[in-house]
Specification:
By secondary structure, the protein is of the alpha/beta class. The chain has one domain: 5-stranded Propeller (L-arginine/glycine Amidinotransferase, Chain A). Helices cover 36% and strands 17% of the residues. The chain has 19 helices and 15 strands. Strands 2-1-15 form a 3-stranded mixed beta sheet, with helices on both faces. The protein has a 3-stranded mixed beta sheet with strand order 3-4-5, with helices on one face. The protein has a 3-stranded mixed beta sheet with strand order 6-7-8, sandwiched between helices. The structure holds N~2~-(3-carboxypropanoyl)-L-arginine. The site of N~2~-(3-carboxypropanoyl)-L-arginine has 22 residues, from loops.
C-alpha cells in the first residue's frame, strides 16, 4: 500500500504579534514589542503550503486558535462582559493580555507528537497533544489543539488521540519539535527518536544553566508508552545543555531528520556517537540504513544555526530517493550557512536541492519552516479517512487566501490587542474558517 508523509501547516492566526513571550528563544526576545503584520504572516505561510503542494507533496492545514483567549482570562479572575474583560486586563495586566492574544499555535510542530500506525501496538496512528507547559501563552493551546486534531482525524478505527500530559514542568512536553522518525518507507515500521533537555527525576542528567529545558525525559517516555511503541523502535537522546543556553529551545532548531537521514549540528547532542550507533542498529533491524549528515562547528557555529534556522528546515524525500531542504530566507543571508548549503548540495550526497522561503513574520518570533508543520505519516487508507476539508487543494488555497485578505489586519500593536473589536473580528473570521475547513464547532466561543 502507498504511504505518505503529510505536512499539516499551522495557519497563522489573526492576532499574530511580537510579545517577547519566550525566554530562551532569541528571536522572540529580540523582536519584542515590534509591530507585526498578521496578514503578511498568514499569506507567507499559505505560500509555502501552496508551493509544497505544487511540488507534489501531500499538504494539509491546521486551524489557528481563538485569541484573545477570554476564557483563559476569566480563569485568572477577570470578569464582566467580554469587552470588559479585555479592557480591564489591558489596564491592569497588559502582559496577560499579550499572552492571551499570542498566535503561537501557528508553530504546530509543537501541537502534538504523532506516531504512525506501523510503529504502534494497536496499528492506529497515535496523537498526544503537547502540554507546552514551559510558557503560559503556549500552555493554553492544548485543549483547542485536541479538539482541532479530533475534528481532522475523526476516525477511531485509524486514529487514537491522547490528552496532554499532566501540566507540570516535570512532564514538560513540546511535541514533535523534539521528536523525529526514521524509516525506510513511511508505511513501514521505523525508529522514533525522542530528544529531551533534562530529566525531572534523575539528577545524574546535566541541565542547562541559563535557559529552560522545555522537554523532559519523563515526558518523552510517557508519550512512547501512550503510543504503544516497542522498546526496539525507540531511541532517547539528550540535547547538549550548552546549546539550549545558546538559544536552541527545541531540538528542531539544531537537527532535522527524514527517512533514513539525520541532518544535525556537531554540538546538538550529548553522547552523540552512542546515539548514532543505537539509531543505526535499531533502524537496521527494521530494514533501514541509517545515514547521518553532521554539520561541523568549523563551518556553521551554533550562533549561525540559531540566527539562520538552518536546521529548522523541512527535509523532504523526492521520488528519485534524493532529498530537498526547505529553508528560510535567513539562510541565504548568512554567508557561512549559504556557503555550507552550496557545498552540501553539490557534494553528491543525499541532500541535492535547497529551496528558500520568505517566512520573516514567523521567523521574527523564532518559528521557521519546520516549526510551522506537523508531520503525519499515513498510508492510503488512513489518508482517505482524514477530514478532506483540511487537505490543501488549489481551491482551498484560494479560499484561505481570500479569507485572510478579508479578515486580517496588516498591522498589530499592543493598542490593537486592547481593542475589544479585535475579539469580534477574530471570532467572525474563525467561525467562517471552521466552515471552510469543515471542522464543526472547535472553539470555546462555539461550544460554550
Ligand atoms: O515556543 N515562539 C515559539 C516558537 C516555536 C518554534 N517552534 C519550534 N521550534 N518547533 C516558542 O518559543 C514567541 C511568541 C512571542 O514572543 O510573541 C513564541 O511563542
Amino acid at each position: 500500500m502507498k504511504s505518505y508523509e503529510v505536512n499539516f501547516d499551522g495557519l497563522v492566526g489573526p492576532t499574530h504579534n511580537y510579545g517577547g513571550l519566550s525566554y530562551g528563544n532569541v528571536a522572540s526576545q529580540s523582536n519584542s514589542q515590534q509591530s507585526s503584520n498578521p496578514k503578511e504572516a498568514a499569506l507567507q505561510g499559505l505560500a509555502k503550503m501552496k508551493a509544497l503542494m505544487d511540488m507534489g507533496f501531500q499538504q494539509g492545514v491546521l486551524a489557528p486558535q481563538e485569541r484573545p483567549d477570554v476564557a483563559a482570562l476569566r480563569r485568572l479572575g477577570f470578569a464582566g462582559s467580554d469587552a470588559q474583560v479585555i479592557q480591564q486586563v489591558a489596564k491592569e495586566a497588559m502582559p496577560l493580555l499579550v499572552a492571551s492574544c499570542s498566535a503561537s499555535s501557528m508553530w504546530v510542530a509543537n501541537a502534538a507528537t504523532v506516531s504512525p500506525s506501523a510503529d504502534t501496538a494497536d496499528g492506529r496512528v497515535h496523537f498526544t497533544a503537547a502540554n507546552l507547559n514551559c510558557k503560559y501563552h503556549r500552555s493554553i493551546e492544548h485543549p483547542t489543539t485536541s479538539r482541532v486534531l479530533g475534528a481532522m482525524f475523526a476516525n477511531q478505527q485509524h486514529f487514537a488521540h491522547h490528552a496532554a500530559l499532566p501540566a507540570v514542568a516535570q512532564f514538560g512536553d513540546e511535541g514533535a519539535a523534539n521528536h523525529t522518525r526514521f524509516c525506510r518507507a513511511y508505511g513501514e515500521a521505523g525508529v522514533e527518536f525522542f530528544v529531551f533537555g533534562r530529566s525531572a527525576f534523575d539528577t545524574r542528567y546535566p541541565a542547562p544553566q541559563k535557559y529552560p529545558a522545555r522537554q523532559t525525559l519523563e515526558a518523552s517516555q510517557a508519550v512512547a508508552r501512550l503510543h504503544g511503541l516497542r522498546e526496539e523502535g525507540v531511541v532517547y537522546a539528550q540535547q547538549n545543555p550548552s546549546v539550549i543556553d545558546q538559544g536552541v529551545f527545541h531540538n528542531d532548531v539544531i537537527a532535522v531528520g527524514n527517512g533514513e537521514v539525520l541532518f544535525y549540528h556537531e554540538d546538538a547532542f550529548l553522547e552523540t556517537d552512542k546515539m548514532l550507533a543505537e539509531l543505526s542498529s535499531k533502524l537496521a533491524k527494521v530494514g533501514g540504513k541509517f545515514q547521518s549528515v553532521c554539520v561541523p562547528r568549523s563551518a556553521v557555529t551554533v550562533d549561525d544555526a540559531v540566527r539562520s534556522y538552518l536546521f529548522n528546515s523541512q527535509l523532504l524525500s523526492r521520488p528519485d530517493g534524493s532529498m530537498l531542504l526547505i529553508v528560510p530566507e535567513e539562510c541565504r543571508s548568512n554567508e557561512r550557512v549559504w556557503q555550507y548549503l552550496q557545498g552540501l548540495t553539490g557534494s553528491g550526497g543525499v541532500i541535492r536541492e535547497v529551496k528558500v522561503f520568505d517566512l520573516k513574520q514567523s521567523m521574527q518570533n523564532g518559528g521557521g519552516p519546520a516549526c510551522l508543520r506537523l508531520r503525519v505519516a499515513l498510508n492510503e487508507t488512513e489518508l482517505a479517512a482524514v477530514n478532506p476539508g483540511v487537505i490543501m487543494t488549489a481551491s482551498l488555497y484560494d479560499s484561505l487566501t481570500q479569507w485572510v485578505e478579508r479578515h486580517y489586519r496588516d498591522r498589530m500593536t499592543e493598542n490593537d490587542l486592547a481593542d475589544p473589536q479585535l475579539l469580534l473580528e477574530c471570532r467572525g473570521a474563525l467561525d467562517e474558517l471552521t466552515q471552510i475547513l469543515k471542522l464543526g464547532a472547535v472553539y470555546p466561543f462555539q461550544i460554550n
